[in-house]
Design the sequence.
């Protein structure tokens, strides 16, 4: 190979580095190997070229010369072959080992098999600038050899020897530095890992994404987060939920826990009202306009659409939440009907509910319901009557001849005393005489509780007298009365009805049931039979002496810390709300409940000072500059479990058996229930709150009717303006957040803040529905995910929430939730 060949463009970038017994040298990119006349001469090779080394498309090849005797990895080389590291070529009395085969350099190690003498090349090798090249090709020839052995027989041993010789070469300095740096980094990482502390993760939903913003080193494995000591922010987020975060302190002394509860985002209700503009009301609170989209909290919701001159549209919707869209198609029914009026003389003036509507004949659209129609003309007696307008229907009146006398109808009924209405207007009790305006049809209805309504439509002819006899058919249903002790005197509506137990039929109206027996307090209750159902009245008479003793000797009890509890009289009541009650929610199922076992309930909510006797470091928190943490304010920011633990602590302190025990990893009420302190059951709470007098309850803290009475309780009145989004219109108290306990008027039983200040944990698990069968001393569902919360609080701004029947659920602490305690008397 000559100087001109090596000086071609690019030649200095593709080189062959050769190491042989006489030393090292560098050849050009295309060099030959063989006997005399080749670039690289090896002993035993015939004169001329045996193998040419070429680079084709970036890959080194060994190309045999025609007729040359060359072996490649022990096999004859008959065509060009790619060269790879550790390949061995045998030519004459030499072996050539490929040490490296990068794209630009080929390193070859030449080993003579017949001695150490090297046959000098017969051509001059041009100088190559090794420094300018990227890499070298090295060819080494080991001293000595196995001259007596054929090449094929020693191939494997020679390749192994070549590798071992190459492996004994010292590592390049840059490799040494790299290995040292790697070891140092590994040691540093190992040291850091040994310093990590674990933080228990309690996150719902469990598949939320966890991050630690601002933390240098953190990783998650299983249900734990591993971080260095210090203060860390643990952040959780998930699609469809509000993000949440908590600060944890890792000090190596105790195992910290990050408890995160992500709340679902509101759901989106896309309401189509077919073009009718309506107001959307969700659970009694205005939420937006339709048609269009409104947001609603997840869970069961009652959606009402209200539009002028249309009937309310109501639907119970299970809102999925999480930003998920749900479509609601609503067809609002018109709430008006049509009245066609004709009269003699023509042109008489017509008015409906006192509003002029032109002259007869005329057609008038009027809202459904009872309407007062008047037809008049100068000099003639006016015609006036109440009529019932039905939505979507047409009512024809006339022709009415003005000046003619009315028709007269006498209505009698069996039994007597039924209420008579004409066109929806009350006209008296049977027997009764009623004048009817002539020229129109009138709907006459006789109604008596416990009987089917009697209805008759009559066209009133001028001057006609008519008698109607209404035979009322009773609605009868079975009622059973039983209990302990038996053979007690039974009275129904104050009249003797034999001895207990009994099964009999009563009319479908409310009846008073009374059971008496000497030596016992009387039992009084009520029952409303329903057609097709059997109502059961169960009583348990309490010894008069024991009950009186409790009332006289211990109407109240007091804990060692001064907390006062009041004895609640035994009794029966209807728990929940009637379907027709304004503001009612679907989870307020109506059922009859009897509370027989005497119990005490706290006069006030448990305060911060009282709770801190149990847990000194508790903090109820702040809102802006307003504190929730004063000693006489009710404790908040407590879970149901915190409240139950407080009850057990107080029982132990007072020498009473604990009411709660561990079951399934959580606190549950012991069965049978002990006399230790506990949270009141949902039935006990509602009965105590609503109690007004024996057999009488109230709907709101102030009574049974609206508006909200002044001083009703600590609610979201005008004083919260600027602090809360909404407030209770027309109401104001002096406490923007929680008030000290006992600042508002007590209930008739002497209990404070049952309808304001903070909502309260009760013992029961939460279900959205009730078993409607009558129950005695119920303890609620056996198991559920959430617990019940009862009573309004300082943020309550909806009238529906002020009702004692209102109920909700929760699973975590809040600035609006506290508790009061209760216990059985014996």
Sequence:
């Amino acid at each position: 190979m000559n100087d001109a060949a090596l000086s071609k463009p690019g030649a200095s970038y593709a080189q062959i580095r050769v190491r042989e017994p006489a030393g090292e040298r560098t050849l050009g990119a295309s060099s030959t190997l063989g006997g005399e006349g080749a670039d690289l001469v090896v002993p035993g090779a015939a004169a001329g070229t045996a193998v040419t080394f070429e680079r084709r498309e970036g890959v080194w090849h060994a190309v045999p010369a025609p007729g040359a005797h060359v072996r490649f990895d022990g096999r004859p080389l008959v065509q060009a072959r790619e060269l790879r590291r550790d390949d061995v070529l045998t030519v004459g009395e030499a072996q050539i080992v490929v040490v490296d085969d990068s794209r630009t350099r080929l390193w070859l190690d030449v080993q003579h098999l017949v001695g150490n003498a090297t046959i000098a090349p017969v051509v001059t090798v041009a100088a190559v600038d090794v420094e300018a090249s990227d890499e070298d090709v090295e060819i080494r020839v080991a001293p000595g050899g196995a001259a007596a052995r054929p090449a094929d027989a020693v191939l494997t041993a020679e390749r192994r020897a070549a590798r071992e010789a190459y492996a004994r070469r010292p590592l390049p300095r840059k490799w040494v530095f790299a290995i040292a740096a790697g070891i140092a980094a590994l040691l540093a990482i190992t040291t850091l890992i040994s310093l990590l502390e674990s933080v228990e993760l309690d996150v719902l939903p469990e598949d939320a994404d966890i991050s630690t913003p601002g933390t240098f080193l953190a990783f998650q494995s299983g249900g734990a987060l591993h971080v260095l000591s210090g203060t860390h922010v643990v952040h959780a987020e998930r699609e469809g939920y509000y993000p949440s975060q908590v600060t944890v302190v890792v000090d190596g002394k105790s195992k910290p826990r990050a408890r995160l509860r992500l709340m679902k985002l509101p759901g989106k209700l896309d309401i189509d009202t077919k073009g009718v503009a309506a107001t959307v009301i969700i659970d009694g609170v205005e939420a937006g306009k339709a048609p269009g989209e409104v947001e609603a909290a997840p869970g069961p919701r009652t959606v009402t659409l209200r539009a002028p001159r249309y009937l309310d549209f109501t639907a119970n919707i299970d809102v999925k939440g999480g930003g998920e869209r749900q479509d609601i198609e609503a067809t609002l029914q018109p709430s008006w009907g049509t009245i066609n009026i004709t009269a003699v003389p023509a042109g008489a003036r017509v008015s409906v509910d006192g509003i002029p509507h032109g002259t007869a004949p005329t057609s008038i659209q009027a809202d459904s319901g009872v309407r007062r129609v008047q037809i008049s003309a100068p000099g003639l007696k006016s015609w006036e009557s109440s009529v019932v307008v039905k939505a979507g229907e047409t009512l024809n009146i006339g022709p009415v001849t003005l000046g003619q006398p009315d028709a007269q109808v006498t209505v009698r009924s069996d039994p007597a005393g039924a209420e008579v209405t004409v066109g929806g207007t009350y006209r008296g009790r049977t027997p009764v005489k009623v004048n009817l305006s002539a020229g129109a049809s009138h709907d006459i209805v006789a109604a008596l509780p416990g009987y089917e309504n009697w209805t008759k439509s009559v066209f009133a002819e001028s001057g006609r007298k008519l008698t109607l006899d209404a035979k009322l058919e009773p609605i009868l249903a079975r009622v059973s009365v039983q209990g302990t002790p038996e053979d007690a005197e039974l009275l129904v509506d104050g009249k003797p009805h034999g001895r207990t137990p009994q099964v009999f039929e009563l009319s479908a109206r409310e009846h008073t049931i009374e059971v008496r027996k000497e030596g016992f307090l009387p039992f009084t209750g009520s029952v409303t039979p329903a057609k097709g159902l059997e109502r059961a009245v169960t009583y348990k008479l309490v010894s008069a002496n024991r009950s009186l003793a409790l009332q006289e000797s211990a109407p109240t009890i007091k804990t060692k810390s001064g907390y006062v509890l009041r004895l609640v009289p035994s009794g029966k009541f209807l728990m929940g709300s009637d379907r027709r009650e304004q503001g009612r929610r679907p989870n307020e199922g109506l059922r009859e409940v009897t509370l027989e076992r005497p119990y005490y309930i706290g006069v006030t909510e448990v305060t911060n000072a009282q709770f801190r006797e149990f847990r000194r470091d508790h903090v109820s928190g702040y809102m802006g500059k307003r504190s929730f943490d004063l000693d006489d304010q009710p404790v908040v920011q407590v879970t149901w479990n915190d409240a139950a633990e407080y009850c057990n602590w107080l029982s132990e302190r007072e020498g009473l058996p604990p009411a709660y025990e561990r079951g399934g990893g959580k606190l549950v009420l012991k069965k049978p229930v002990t006399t230790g302190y506990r949270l009141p059951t949902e039935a006990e709470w509602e009965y105590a709150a609503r109690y007004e007098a024996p057999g009488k309850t109230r709907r709101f803290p102030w009574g049974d009717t609206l508006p909200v009475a002044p001083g009703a309780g600590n609610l979201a009145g005008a004083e919260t303006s600027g602090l809360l989004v909404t407030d209770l219109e027309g109401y104001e108290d002096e406490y923007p957040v929680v008030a000290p306990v006992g600042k508002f008027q007590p209930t008739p039983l002497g209990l404070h803040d049952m309808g304001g200040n903070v909502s309260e944990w009760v013992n029961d698990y939460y279900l959205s529905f009730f078993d409607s069968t009558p129950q005695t001393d119920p303890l609620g569902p056996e198991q559920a995910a959430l617990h019940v919360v009862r009573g309004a609080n300082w943020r309550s701004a909806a009238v529906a929430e002020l009702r004692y029947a209102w109920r909700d659920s929760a699973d975590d602490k809040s600035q609006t939730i506290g508790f009061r305690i209760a216990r059985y008397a014996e």
The chain is about 10% helix and 40% strand. Confidence is low (pLDDT under 50) at residues 1-12, 116-155.
